[in-house]
Specification:
Layout: H1 8-23, H2 34-43, H3 49-61, H4 67-71, H5 75-81, H6 88-106, H7 110-114, H8 118-127, H9 133-143, H10 153-161, H11 173-183, H12 189-209
Bound molecules: iron/sulfur cluster.
Length: about 230
């Protein structure tokens, strides 16, 4: 099938609708509180969600799934509790640095932190150890309620395989979030945050089901968007 005359952002916007129809509401992020979401964003780096759940379960059992709970832990205790999700020697001090910043700059209040303007808050998060663009944007979107897109490896694969960005280089994180912003630019402002929320969750869903390291296009909801000669 030859591609339609839709622009890449329009195709990405249509992909959202197709995935939403195929998979339904995703109810992300899988966390009971905003702080638990933030912990999950740190712990999920370079590991599976199952491993994250084991660490969260340890923290819950130790009464440390709250800001006060983490604050009360020694570095060694925190390392031990989050050991199942790996890289604990790096992740434990990174989590403590986030809590220290929250305490010193926002009186220990996520509500106060959420009220900060998006751009400087994103920069502040990126200045913390262990926080790259994906973690910062996930925290901004899912824990603090800011309307920012989140991109990951699944989205990069989809964009690359569907040739939504022509690049003689690895497609960057900013390329992906820029394209996502364009895709939802015509949507009304109040709805955009929820659209970014769902879109990221839906790309993870289709990535896990079909578009991993080896794509399985047969049965994939997005196959109609892909030229026939590129289907695997
Ligand atoms: S599995 Fe195939 S059709 Fe589905 S998103 Fe990946 S490349 Fe596209």
């Amino acid at each position: 099938m030859k591609q339609s005359a839709l622009s890449p952002p329009q195709r990405l916007r249509r992909m959202h609708d197709t995935l939403a129809a195929a998979f339904g509401p995703q109810h992300w992020w899988p966390a009971r509180t905003r702080f638990e979401m933030i912990l999950g964003a740190y712990l999920t780096q370079n590991t599976s969600w199952k491993a994250v759940e084991r660490s969260l379960s340890n923290l819950r059992a130790a009464g440390a799934l709250t800001i006060a709970g983490v604050r009360a832990l020694s570095l060694e205790e925190l390392r031990r509790l989050i050991q199942p999700s790996g890289f604990f020697t790096r992740k434990a001090p990174a989590i403590q640095a986030l809590v220290a910043m929250l305490d010193s700059e926002f009186s220990g209040s996520l509500t106060q932190m959420a009220k900060a303007p998006t751009a400087p808050l994103r920069k502040r998060l990126l200045d913390l150890p262990g926080v790259g663009p994906e973690t910062a944007d996930a925290i901004l979107l899912y824990a603090l309620g800011h309307a920012v897109p989140v991109a990951d490896e699944y989205l990069r694969r989809i964009v690359e395989r569907h040739q939504l960005i022509e690049a003689n280089r690895r497609i960057s994180y900013d390329d992906l979030t820029g394209l996502t912003r364009e895709a939802f630019a015509a949507d009304p402002e109040p709805e955009r945050r929820q659209l970014f929320n769902e879109f990221h969750a839906l790309t993870v869903a289709v990535g896990k089901a079909h578009c991993g390291r080896t794509p399985r296009c047969e049965g994939c909801p997005l196959v109609a968007d892909l030229d026939e000669d590129r289907r695997v």
